[in-house]
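Entry 14. Ran structure prediction on the chain below.
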Amino acid sequence: MVRQRGDEIMLSQDDVKRILQIGVSLSAERNFGKLLEQILSNVMELAHCDAGTLYLLEEDALHFEIMRNDTLGTYEGASGTKPTLPPVPLKRENVCAFALLENRTVRIADVRQCAEYDFSGPIRYDAMTGYHTQSMLVVPMSNREGEKLGVLQLINAQDEAGNVCPFSEDMTLVLESVASQAAITIQNVRYIQEIKELVHSFVRTMSSAIDQRSSYTGNHTRHMAMYCEKFLDYLNSRVEGHGDEEPLMPEGRAAGQYFFTPERREELLMSVWLHDIGKLVIPLEVMDKPLRLRPEQHEAFLHRMEIIRLKGRIEYLEGKASEPDFEALLAATEAAENLIEEMNTGRPLTDSQKEALEVLAGRTYRDEDGQKPWLMPEEKKMLLIPRGTLSEDERKVIESHVSVTDKLLSEIRFSKELSHVREWASGHHELLNGRGYPRHLQGDEIPVEIRILTILDIFDALTAADRPYKKAKTPKEALDILKMDANNGRLDLELVQLFEESRCWEEGLS
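Output, structure tokens:
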């Protein structure tokens, strides 16, 4: 450890090695809070001082980031609770502001003997705590371009005997060098954070644009992201444990698979935001199809019924058809329209509806080109869709969005920390029994992250209230469906049970 005697500083080989190690460790740290902690703890150890404060410049004021006092045993900031003290204005009478404005280190042997700066703040602090602030060293932090970033303020240097002494001039040079490295690292980490936030903002914007493209799925991805954050918090709390006697995880599953580090969490959330990006190329008339018949098919059928009625009226007026025949025709076309309206939904069909449709499909009328059917074969095919509103071909178009998602994400050069985003995002329709798509993965081929994403996707689709072609399920109904799918081998039963326990869809959960 660096020791000082009077104005002389003694650096051993270990001290020099430590200074070099500080530079390496600061350069390697990417967590901003931990970086600030490292900076203050390293300079305090080098200076062998009792207390210190790290300020960062924001909007023309120096904001307290970390405060540490070893004698009082206090520590605030960074990973802990941020100091609540008001920021220090950039006025020259404030020593930390002066050091930053002048970009030079200020060394003071005894603050009570220095009239050049305003030390009313430290003196008030001493009066409240019983501490005695004496020597001080204030080191500005600026990057290579001279941009002012913040200030390191160190208090009460100690000699080998533990007595308070002034900071030596040589120590000042050492700490200025470390502060310069720290400033560059702070700026680099800030740049990385800004770039990362730019990427995340762009992803969220793109995702919102995709959802807003369809009036029926406007909140889908946002809901999934909220559920995902809360669910991962719940899983982490189970793994970390809170003194509960119950098993942290269901029997048979390693707890580590359910612990999400900040990096793994970010990667999965990015996958959630991007999972439907392939819907950019899906035609809206398919993606937003609320009824079995396409709009042009429905319009063509109604137009055909009107033509049949007009032809019947002409025949009646020309004496080619009797009045009862004409009345029967009007009743038949009205019944046909009512039948189509009943069947042209996403609801399951009854046997009586199917039988009536067969009768309707067998009826014909005559026009200039000969006999024509009341119901076209393609219309009949659409109306007999067994589940939902999409035909087999239309369903394949919708399902293609995951392949498009995979293709689009393959064009992005993700960082190592986000290297699984493409795989996870494009796999959210895979099922454990191998009947999912696009790759028909099964069992252990499907990572935990994809299993989670699939559960979130299905749950929100079931409970969504913005789908006009179906009634929203209650959370309980949706959970019952998820559990049924899990028992049938489609979904991960353990994860479905944990999802149910988490209640992550409820308002107010953190």
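Confidence is low (pLDDT under 50) at residues 1-7, 242-248. Will compare against last week's run tomorrow.
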